[in-house]
Amino acid sequence: MKIGVIGGGQLGRMLALAGTPLGMNFAFLDPAPDACAAALGEHLRADYGDQDHLRQLADEVDLVTFEFESVPAETVAFLSQFVPVFPSAEALRIARDRLFEKSMFKELGIPTPAFADILSQADLEAAVASIGLPAVLKTRTLGYDGKGQKVLRSAADVAGTFAELGSVPCLLEGFVPFTGEVSLVAVRGRDGETAFYPLVHNTHEAGILRLSVASADHPLQALAEDYAGRVLDKLGYVGVLAFEFFEVDGGLKANEIAPRVHNSGHWTIEGAECSQFENHLRAVAGLPLGSTAKVGESAMINFIGSVPEVPAVLAVEDCHLHHYGKAFKAGRKVGHATLRCSDAATLEKRIAQVQALV
């Protein structure tokens, strides 16, 4: 089976690493000349809207998926005329737009922060008067890793902010006094079979994920699965979907979904019976899903901007290095380490050892 992937970054690369042992081959469509997934399959260098190359991709593969939500939904809709594409264009259309996403949560009875659609500075000022401060203004599309957003704490922060974010459609969200950030990685097959990984505790710095620790018997696991299940069923979803939540007052408030394999699920490569990458491929290919059970105690540490000296990382016991083969650049995810230990105390020690290298 040959699978086409829109996007040739590290997520596409890790999909190919998971799929190769299953007898799968890969083709990546990505405009970047140095797409890091290209070493693991055919590289069609073209823009995501290039219909000639999209047709070429569709003719060469058995099905198509995508590695990130910056892909236009129109690209997926176009490809769907010629080849199966999972997740669907509709799932991507909703997940890549924060207004559509939050409106879906509200429709499904999933708690969210207060929010308002912002199309002008006047809209922003009216929404701030209604929702209050502090609040967060985010572009409706394309913002990630802290980009395309600004925290508003005072009236001075509000002035001119719509133009500062590019005068593009935005969403204002009430600030959530959360006690923790968690994410749930879910997977749904073509036949509706659904599975969930354990909730993960996430730590961010400057809007970028730095550390994910897989939980053991989290008290909100069932609630998170309920909320994620509502979204999966609503969208008729196929593939892996990540759902990010805020822990608030003993419950959960929805932050956002990602219609793809996710950074907070990287621990599953060594820390689960079947990784999120393999399970995504199983789902889109119509194969039985693999077990999402944990194997030991696991965590993931992102390497941002550069990867520490390889010998030093490999010298840490229970540590597994994943180098993406990307040029080092400030603020860029260029690799990660996953840790799998026999107990929580050892895991905490190993996390500190790796963090000392960063």
Low-confidence spans = none
The CATH topology of the largest domain corresponds to D-amino Acid Aminotransferase, Chain A, domain 1
Q: How many strand units?
A: 17
Q: What is the architecture of the largest domain at the second tier of CATH?
A: 2-Layer Sandwich
Full CATH superfamily name of the largest domain: ATP-grasp fold, B domain
Helix percentage range? 25-40%
How many structural domains does the protein architecture include? Answer: 3
Describe the structure concisely.
The protein has 358 residues and is of the alpha+beta class. 30% of the residues lie in helices and 28% in strands.
Give a structural overview.
Helix content is 30%, strand content 28%. With 358 residues, it is an alpha+beta fold. The strands form three sheets. Strands 9, 10, 11, 12, 13, 14, 15, 16 and 17 form a nine-stranded antiparallel beta sheet that branches. The longest helix has 15 residues.
Produce the secondary structure layout:
Blueprint (H helix, E strand, L loop, with lengths): L1 E5 L3 H10 L5 E5 L12 E3 L6 H10 L2 E4 L6 H7 L9 H7 L2 H10 L7 E4 L2 H11 L3 E5 L9 E4 L2 H4 L2 H4 L5 E5 L5 E9 L5 E3 L3 E6 L2 E7 L6 H15 L3 E10 L2 E8 L9 H4 L4 H9 L12 E8 L5 H5 L4 E5 L9 E9 L2 H12 L3
Parallel strand pairs: 1-2, 1-4, 2-3
Antiparallel strand pairs: 5-8, 6-7, 6-8, 9-10, 9-11, 9-13, 11-12, 12-15, 13-14, 15-17, 16-17
Helix pairs in contact: 1-11, 3-4
